[in-house]
Amino acid sequence: MSFIPSNQCRLEILPNELLIEVFQHLNCRTLREFQRLNQRFKSIISCLNVCFVLQDESDDFNAFNPTQIVRVEMNFCYQSLNFQHLSNIRSLSLDYTYMTKEQIIQITQLDMFHLERLSIENIMSNLGERLLHTSAQGEHFPSLRILQLGLNTSDQLQLLPKRTTSNNRVRCLIINRWKWSRLHFLLEFFPHLSWLEINLDDNPISTMNLTQSSHSLTRFKITLEHCDPYHSDRIFHLMPNLIQLCIRANIGTNLALVYFVKLAKCLSSYTPNLQYFDCEIYCYTDENENTGEVIRKYHQLFKQIRCLRGEHQNRCFATDMQTYPYGNQYEIIRKPVTKRPSLNKYGIHYSDSDDNDDDMFFLKFLADMLFILFLHLFIFCSSAFDIVQLADEDLRYLNERLQLHDHMSREDALNSIIELEHFYTGLKNDLNGSPSEMVDKAWHAHILNTKMYFRFSELNFGRYLHHLPFWSGNQDEAEELNEDISMLDKLKILGIQNMNETVWTLQLHETPSSDGITN
């Protein structure tokens, strides 16, 4: 069946300039049909740059001069394809599955001086090694700008540090599978990168040992299959000039709030020029849109983040999606609820219960503890003032006490504990003042555990830190407290950042508390 419409004769009246413009937008099969019509069309087409998409044996190079071919996309085994004849090739999209042994040898040994883009899918480790080394040296591909590698596995890659040359002009690198421990090799192999897209498919390592930075890198897209909020984000100290960042990650049962608080600190510290931010963070927690509101306050680029709710506790925190993407690879499918027997005083009855309920409760509780510990390590890490940190045992006790006895929500309990530490830090730095009602509840709970509180006071203050409730007999002591400036404002002036002002301003009762401290 001919590809040429019946009214093709109308094209004859067009000037050559317009015909060239028309022909440049046609595929190679259609061009071959036009070649057969007349000598004029054939002559014009012989001057064009041709892009070939090889899909079956009917796609034949013989109809064109090899120097015309500037782009080849090979989607099946085409044994007659000889890269030696493609002296003007600029873009190659190949699949290792369909390549012959001779073609594999050619792609690593031939000089392709005009090749600007190389993409190969389903690569085995041995070819991946050779392509990386060859591209880094820049000898065979001196014009290469874009390198895209689809590796079947990166486990067996044997990479050795190599000296790069001035011929290495790779600016964009896209790799579908890589390891944390080998990240520095890429930055060393390709020192002039401005765009990097990478998928890290193993468990993260501490990146403090990674020292090979890339000052030329301005755009970074990363997928983290196993994201640890306490290690994953230190990678950004290697990329101080980032302008655009896109993150897709699975943080499992870790709290998204923990991840974004740390990410905000890393971005503020390491990437001051960042202008564009996109994310797609998957987790399995009971967080909701209220968490999204809190997250949006931590960084100006987080203002588009939304909490998308899936089945059960599947969540996605994303910037450019409106609904949860069901069926994604990170979605956790709960086991069907089974009825199991339990005893009561009347005999045996069956209760609907998930076998993993106890495990999920433990994971939630553990996540709470990690959240508070995380804030210990990162929110105050660069402060110049003396910081008070609650011990792990104190944290666990307060979190349980506030939820079970003071009936606080999990989020309110965590925020109250964090602000209690801020309050203690202010006292440690000679700031006298009154706590808010929520902070005061946490302080009361701490004091009730007398042995624990005494140990805490002696360790952090060298004395017992007294609580001063307001009553008619202590007016003189109460007047010593400088309440012209609120404790919240004093702590801000001290330099404490990212405070939860709601905890300090929310009034639980009509008559606000006047509790303070005394020596």
TrEMBL record:
The F-box domain, residue ranges: 8-45
InterPro entries referenced in this protein's UniProt entry, alphabetically: F-box-like_dom_sf (IPR036047), F-box_dom (IPR001810), LRR_dom_sf (IPR032675)
Keywords of this entry: Membrane, Transmembrane, Transmembrane helix
Top-level taxon of the source organism: Eukaryota
Membrane-spanning residues: 369-391
Protein name: F-box domain-containing protein
